[in-house]
Amino acid sequence: MSEPVAGPAEILGSAPVIEALAALEHERWAHWQRYLHGQGELGEDGSITIPAALVGRWARQMATPYVELSEDEKESDREQVRRYLPVIVAAMRGAGDGTCCRH
């Protein structure tokens, strides 16, 4: 008798896959923070002041549903998603055996 095959939710929710995706998310966040911090002006107290033009742009983007973004803005989001796909594809190919996430 064969073992039951794990479904997508079990595979993608497994600890190795979650850890691999969390590591990618941290890299994405750290990259964004480096960019964000580089755009602002460092104050004497260690705070960062973000230029009003960027605050306005990002506020508009935050308030805009994805389908209403410009094609360039959508492509920027797609680029981020593409970073996660190799882990997801490898996890599905490995059927939850953890091989997607071994370094």
From TrEMBL:
<protein>
    <submittedName>
        <fullName>Uncharacterized protein</fullName>
    </submittedName>
</protein>
